[in-house]
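note to self — DONT lose this again. spent like an hour looking for the file last time. sequence + predicted structure for the chain T wanted, 318 res
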Amino acid sequence: MHILSKRFDCEIMNYSNEVLLCDLSLLAKTENINLSRFLAYIQEISHRGLHVEKGYSHLSPFLQEVLGLSEDEAMKRIQASRLCRRFPYIYQLIEEGYLNLSVLCRLSRHLTEGNHRRILDEAKGKSVREVERLIVREFPKTSPEDKIRKTALPLSIDRYWVQFTTDSEGVALLEKAKALLSRKYPEGKLNDIYKEALSKLIEELEPKRAKRDQTEKEQRKEPSPAARQVTHDERHQITSRYIPKHVRGEAWEDAKACCQYVSALGKRCGETKFLEFDHVFSWADGGSSKTASNIRILCRNHNAWFAKVRFGERVNLR
């Protein structure tokens, strides 16, 4: 334990009961005020895209790595900060101790411009369980929603628990897949069917770039311009931002299928989802679409951030 912590432990041991309870109450009020300010800071950082500039595709990993929050702490604060931006009245309720993060996250999907004042006032000072009963009363469900959990929960070092719901068609497809694979997987374990299906899907969807590039190179062996006329489509490609397939393939391979943004401090984003092609020297300023050296791979947020920096466009960074 840190030396200062030891001293403080010794100090509070000498407090009277009245002083201890009074100080605890003051600390709780200060914590609520700080939480309200913290949420406002998060929203402003998100609005300015500062996390994107620092090399993070999303706000959650920024809060986890830079501020040391857990994933759950980060997600709750992000969700609450977005609610506060939509409904500033929430700041006041947090500062006064009437609402906490768990309650806000339960209410987030149900608040609108028309009902938020009434729902928030009714939720003031209530526990999570009481708020859940409020939600059921105000927004009754006719049937459970189909959804896939965002995070696979680890059971051990190399095993995870994945849970999702599906419809009757999904069940029928699963049963048919189990029947077709019964010789290979006689026990019919869902894990085997799941991995087999995803492997086949990725094999089908993943670009076979080497073979395709070779085909395109052969197709580009054409007669000299004097031997034929330039078509309308070719003329369009010369003057447009169209990126030829072989250029996209080379850029994708160079990027190793992840975002290439690197911050000023050397932090590479590395995001692998929602990737987009971007011109290093912008097409609007005369940058070429025909050379791979001028094409890079960026995630959606970093592509939007560059657009904001270059052209002052208003973009939503998450």
